[in-house]
């Protein structure tokens, strides 16, 4: 009986175990079936119409590629931009056959012919719509593959999204396909991997006219939606997921949200492969790239400035323990503009390795384009995570076993050669050469060429010792060479420094720097105005021409000039009052929207705008965008005016002393050495005809005054055109205070 009971218990245990195992297997098969159905189905949209999955059909299975275009700036004043776009881009897309086409903002120009009035022009939007329809038709691509974003130029003077002046919602591809959200995502999936692309619109909710519409303004809601979209496959997919985001503004020109969060925080959290953007064009340089990495730092400097493309040195030790936290990092790749550079980018993802090539179409179409997909450029594509995967031997070996390149051509390709050069001898020395073979697929989307190699032979502690070049030759004998690019199979990053202009636009976090720069400047202005006055009133130490002669020096000269300014009450109180006016009084009142209904006013903190219901107001709109008006005025008008007025007062004091010495009224006050110092063009002062011709320091200061007034006039003229203002009515203090103070200082210096 006990034996029977024991057998029954074992049987029940086996049945229970088998049932659990069967349930697990059924659940696993169900997930795999859903995955297969998802892979083989047509593109799907979720309920909010902003999330899509695309099955990438055809080979090569291991690679997908997309095209990025940015800053088209279609303009009624420059029809060649749209004409060239239609002529070049359509055939190029047909040749490249990308899975997506991303257009990252500034679709239209929105500027007058003199570039000073900035608001939407519907004619430009109609031209954009017609051009894109032609390009899509000539490319042979599905319209759903195109994603366009709003840039700041597409938002000039737009009071509200969806209103009568919001032409983006009416004429853009996203608008026509009902992608109305601020965040849209699309997943390209192959049988091996998922590739998630998330685009977002961070333009300001109130579309101010330029020039105070320059920055991206992500809200907390947008950041939450972006976080959600980037997380959509975290727990659902058994395939590896490569995440890429695209927007218009570089992070250096993106503000933080009201809660202090930033796009960088979200991107680091998800360890994006890359963030693609535009906005800056190519006039600042070609290396507008930046590697971001999460670092713990006690100082706030890294939040404001990054001095090199790479935030950290690649020489740090790799932690291979399982407890080591994942590396939080991502690349930011700004691309050139179509407006002048006729630039296009092809970006490829090859088994998780992300590479790109920027193409310049200024010289016309291209017959052949070659994009190396592995190994990666160690200057602009290597990551700390790839180095860790290699050194800890957790990478996929099959992704390292060959040199690979995509070749796009209008003509049949007869040969592709890969060459590796060693720079250790001091010159380029060819150490490896191999013919590349095309992967054959009956339903190929494009041509991927590979060449097997022993990648371990190229391990080296130097990230730029070995350089790769690929050459493709078509049947007509035309050869296309890629640029030499360094690579590091062990994932080290080669050092690449910015130029000053590149650092200025990519390394400075301008939204975070605006208020420190503003208040430092204002404190300095108050210091140079109030300190000499306090010394003049409360201290026995006086800065005069005599003390300057006795102790010459730059600081003494400045202090003497500023104290001479204090001795002219109208000028001193005038400058102090003007600076206080800039702090406590609106700078000007203008039309910030294209509807022309209400006038709003601007302070150094931002625009104050009435709410749509008229019951309240929105403050600090357009901050830090207003820095393009505020800081140049302080740096190039206010500060120079204070100094030049002080020097005019000092020059007047010198001239007065010299005149009195010649008249005999103060002969005892001057020795011969001091008098010779005074003779700097004042000889013959008794002859009034020579008065202006001989005072060359005063003449030089007059030229400086004219330069300041000219710069101020140009700024006022631009503001008048931008916001439809009358200087006498809408900003008299801003317009006339400085010229009047300079004119009075010049007049005062004429008399002794």
TrEMBL record:
UniProt domain Calcineurin-like phosphoesterase: residue ranges:
66-282
Q: Which Gene3D superfamilies match?
A: 3.60.21.10
Any idea which UniProt keywords this protein has? Membrane, Signal, Transmembrane, Transmembrane helix
| TMEM62 Ig-like domain residues | 365-492
The TMEM62 C-terminal domain covers which part of the protein?
515-732
Q: What domain of life?
A: Eukaryota
Indicate the transmembrane segments per the record.
517-538, 570-589, 626-650, 696-713, 728-747
The protein, known as: Calcineurin-like phosphoesterase domain-containing protein
Tell me what organism the protein belongs to: Lithocarpus litseifolius
Q: Supply the source organism's classification.
A: Eukaryota, Viridiplantae, Streptophyta, Embryophyta, Tracheophyta
């Amino acid at each position: 009986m006990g034996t029977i009971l024991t057998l029954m218990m074992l049987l029940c245990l086996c049945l229970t175990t088998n049932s659990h195992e069967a349930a697990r297997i059924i659940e696993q098969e169900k997930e795999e079936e859903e995955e297969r159905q998802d892979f083989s189905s047509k593109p799907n949209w979720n309920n909010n119409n902003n999330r899509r999955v695309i099955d990438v059909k055809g080979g090569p299975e291991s690679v997908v590629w997309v095209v990025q275009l940015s800053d088209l700036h279609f303009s009624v004043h420059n029809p060649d931009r749209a004409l060239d776009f239609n002529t070049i881009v359509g055939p190029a897309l047909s040749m490249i056959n990308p899975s997506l086409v991303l257009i990252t903002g500034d679709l239209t120009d929105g500027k007058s012919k003199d570039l000073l009035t900035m608001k939407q022009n519907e004619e430009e939007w109609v031209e954009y719509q017609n051009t894109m329809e032609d390009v899509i038709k000539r490319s042979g691509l599905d319209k759903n593959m195109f994603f366009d974003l709003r840039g700041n130029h597409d938002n000039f003077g737009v009071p509200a999204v969806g209103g009568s002046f919001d032409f983006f919602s009416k004429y853009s591809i996203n608008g026509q396909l009902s992608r109305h959200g601020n965040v849209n995502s699309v997943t390209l999936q192959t049988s091996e991997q998922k590739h998630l692309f998330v685009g977002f619109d961070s333009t300001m909710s109130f579309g101010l006219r330029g020039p105070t519409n320059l920055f991206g303004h992500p809200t907390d809601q947008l950041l939450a939606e972006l976080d959600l979209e980037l997380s959509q496959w975290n727990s659902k997919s058994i395939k590896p997921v490569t995440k890429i985001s695209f927007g218009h503004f570089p992070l250096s020109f993106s503000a933080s949200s009201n809660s202090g969060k930033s796009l960088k925080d979200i991107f680091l959290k998800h360890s994006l492969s890359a963030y693609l953007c535009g906005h800056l064009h190519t006039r600042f340089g070609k290396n507008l790239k930046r590697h971001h990495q999460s670092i713990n730092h006690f100082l706030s400097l890294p939040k404001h400035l990054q001095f090199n493309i790479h935030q950290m040195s690649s020489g740090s030790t790799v932690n291979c323990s399982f407890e080591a936290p994942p590396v939080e990092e991502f690349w930011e790749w700004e691309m050139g503009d179509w407006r002048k550079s006729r630039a296009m980018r092809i970006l490829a993802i090859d088994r998780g390795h992300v590479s790109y090539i920027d193409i310049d179409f200024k010289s016309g179409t291209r017959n052949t384009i070659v994009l190396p997909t592995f190994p990666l450029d160690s200057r602009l594509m290597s990551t700390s995570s790839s180095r860790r995967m290699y050194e800890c031997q957790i990478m996929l070996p099959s992704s390292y076993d060959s040199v690979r390149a995509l070749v796009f051509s209008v003509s049949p390709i007869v040969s592709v050669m890969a060459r590796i050069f060693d720079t250790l001898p001091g010159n380029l020395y060819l150490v490896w050469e191999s013919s590349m073979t095309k992967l054959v697929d009956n339903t190929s989307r494009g041509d991927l060429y590979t060449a097997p190699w022993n990648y371990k032979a190229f391990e080296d502690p130097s990230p730029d010792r070995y350089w790769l070049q690929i050459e493709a030759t078509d049947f007509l004998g035309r050869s296309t060479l890629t640029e030499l690019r360094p690579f590091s199979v062990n994932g080290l990053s080669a050092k690449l420094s910015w130029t000053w202009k590149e650092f200025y636009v990519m390394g400075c976090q301008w939204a975070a720097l605006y208020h420190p720069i503003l208040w430092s400047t204002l404190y300095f202005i108050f210091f140079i105005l109030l300190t000499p006055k306090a010394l003049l009133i409360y201290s026995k130490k006086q800065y005069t021409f005599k003390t300057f002669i006795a102790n010459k020096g730059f600081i003494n000269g400045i202090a003497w000039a500023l104290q001479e300014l204090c001795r002219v009450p109208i000028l001193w109180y005038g400058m102090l009052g003007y600076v206080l006016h800039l702090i406590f009084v609106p700078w000007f009142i203008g039309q910030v929207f294209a509807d022309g209904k209400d006038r709003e006013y601007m302070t150094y903190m931002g625009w104050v705008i009435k709410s749509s219901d008229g019951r309240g107001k929105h403050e600090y709109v357009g901050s830090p965008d207003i820095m393009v008006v505020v800081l140049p005025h302080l740096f190039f008008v206010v500060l120079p005016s204070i100094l030049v007025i002080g020097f005019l007062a000092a020059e007047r004091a010198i001239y007065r002393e010299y005149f009195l010495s010649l008249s005999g009224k103060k002969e005892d006050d001057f020795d011969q050495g001091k008098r010779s110092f005074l003779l700097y063009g004042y000889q013959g002062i008794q002859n009034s005809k020579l008065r202006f011709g001989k005072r060359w320091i005063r003449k030089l200061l007059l030229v400086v005054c004219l330069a300041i007034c000219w710069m101020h006039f140009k700024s006022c003229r631009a503001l008048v055109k931008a916001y439809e203002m009358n200087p006498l009515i809408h900003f008299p203090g801003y317009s006339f205070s400085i010229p009047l103070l300079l004119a009075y200082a010049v007049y005062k210096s004429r008399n002794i």
